[in-house]
Specification:
By secondary structure, the chain is an alpha/beta fold. 27% of the residues lie in helices and 29% in strands. The protein has three domains: 117 residues, NIF3 (NGG1p interacting factor 3)-like (Udp-n-acetylmuramoylalanyl-d-glutamate--2,6- Diaminopimelate Ligase, Chain: A, domain 1, 3-Layer(aba) Sandwich), CATH 3.40.1390.30; 106 residues, Udp-n-acetylmuramoylalanyl-d-glutamate--2,6- Diaminopimelate Ligase, Chain: A, domain 1 (3-Layer(aba) Sandwich); 101 residues, Alpha-Beta Plaits, CATH 3.30.70.120. Strands 5-10-12-13-14-11 form a six-stranded mixed beta sheet. It has a five-stranded mixed beta sheet with strand order 1-4-3-2-15, with helices on both faces. Keywords: Metal-binding.
Length: 364
């Protein structure tokens, strides 16, 4: 098994195209064709994690946070980033990161927080725009169902919680094949009128190659007519943060105590308790203060995230409760997500979850 085989299973769930512009997700150290002897999954790559990988015989580390965010100009070992990268290279250990791309997908970091808290009716808090494409093609009636199924199997036609979505209109197409053609219907050199179905469906842009390839393979024509349009619509399945509802109203203080236990928080920093009971909960793994306005607009009772600065707490303005549970605490279960993705594809492979607590923050 090679590095590219392992990371492809992750990128099928969390494509690199979903990472934020400032991010550095992907293969940071190592070669795609490197043979993998074992995998170590962690939140942060630090020197002790490299040592753990060596001890466990793992030569691929899958991390949530990229060890390199900005370009390294020197490798002198003067800081932990340089030392960690140097140690990985010396020991032929590859480092791969899935960061904001795994934050942005269903089944990712924020949805895992929702599930741990017990939220229902979950929706993406800040959906991405301009991610969707529309495919239009024209198929003879007797092949329409085959082409539709191929498109759906390739990932097209999903809208929210619905799949196999398409719009179909029957009409008549015309074409005339040249001397070097071998038309599926009609005769070359003669104008042909054919009853066809116009099929329209949407897909996320990262699936373009897969969707078009599936359509071409299933379509009977030698020359397939199709159009692809870029859409301004938000993709409701992709974006940062999530919002959902508790099964029933819950006492606010009891809720805070419950999430403190679930996430093993040293403390929770929170704003004024302006509601005795809550039901609608917004969440974001890691640093989520940039989504405060989204949480307020969505009428959340409480916003659970990490890394709020002092003055940002004032921005709640008693419109909701901010509950800062900590960066590490909110993202620690990302390791379980990676483990589930990889072991589903490779059930008998040596996959380890790091035993190192990489949280740089301590509580007294």
């Amino acid at each position: 098994m090679k590095v590219r085989d392992i990371i492809s299973s992750i990128e099928e769930v969390a494509p690199l195209s979903y990472q934020e512009s400032y991010d550095n997700a992907g293969l940071i150290v190592g070669e795609y064709n490197q043979e993998v002897s074992g995998i170590l999954i962690c939140l942060d790559v630090i020197e002790t994690v490299i040592e753990e990988a060596i001890q466990k015989g793992a030569n691929l580390i899958i991390a949530h946070h990229p060890i390199v965010f900005k370009g390294l100009k020197r490798f002198n070992g003067t800081n932990y980033v340089e030392r960690t990268v140097m140690m990985a290279i010396k020991n032929n250990i590859a480092i791969y990161s899935a960061h904001t791309n795994i934050d942005s997908v269903r089944g990712g970091v924020s949805e895992r927080i929702c599930d741990l808290i017990g939220l229902q009716n979950k929706k993406v808090l800040s959906p991405v725009g301009e991610d969707l494409k529309k495919l239009v093609t024209f198929v003879p009636n007797d092949h329409a169902q085959k082409v539709r199924e191929a498109l759906f199997n390739a990932g097209a036609g999903s809208i929210g919680n619905y799949d196999s979505c398409s719009f179909n209109v029957e009409g008549e197409g015309t074409f005339r094949g040249g001397e070097e053609t071998n038309p599926y219907v009609g005769e070359k050199g003669k104008l042909n009128f054919e009853k066809e179905v116009r099929i329209e469906t949407i897909f996320p842009k990262h699936l373009k190659g897969k969707v078009v390839g599936a359509m071409l393979n299933a379509h009977p024509y030698e020359e397939v007519a199709y159009d692809i349009y870029s859409l301004d619509n938000n993709n409701p399945q992709v974006g940062l943060g999530m919002i959902g509802e508790l099964e029933g109203e819950e006492n606010t203080i009891e809720f805070l105590k419950r999430i403190k236990e679930i996430f093993g928080c040293g403390c929770i920093r929170y704003t004024n308790i302006n509601k005795e009971k809550i039901k609608k909960v917004a969440v974001c793994g890691g640093s989520g203060s940039f989504l405060l306005r989204n949480a307020i607009s969505a009428k959340a009772d409480i916003f659970v995230t990490g890394d709020f600065k002092y003055h940002e707490f004032f921005d709640a303005e008693d419109k909701l409760i901010i509950a800062d549970i900590g960066h590490y605490e909110s993202e620690q279960f990302t390791r379980d997500i990676f483990y589930e993705i990889v072991t589903k594809k490779l059930p008998n492979f040596a996959v380890h979850i790091s035993e190192i607590n990489s949280n740089p923050i301590n509580y007294l």
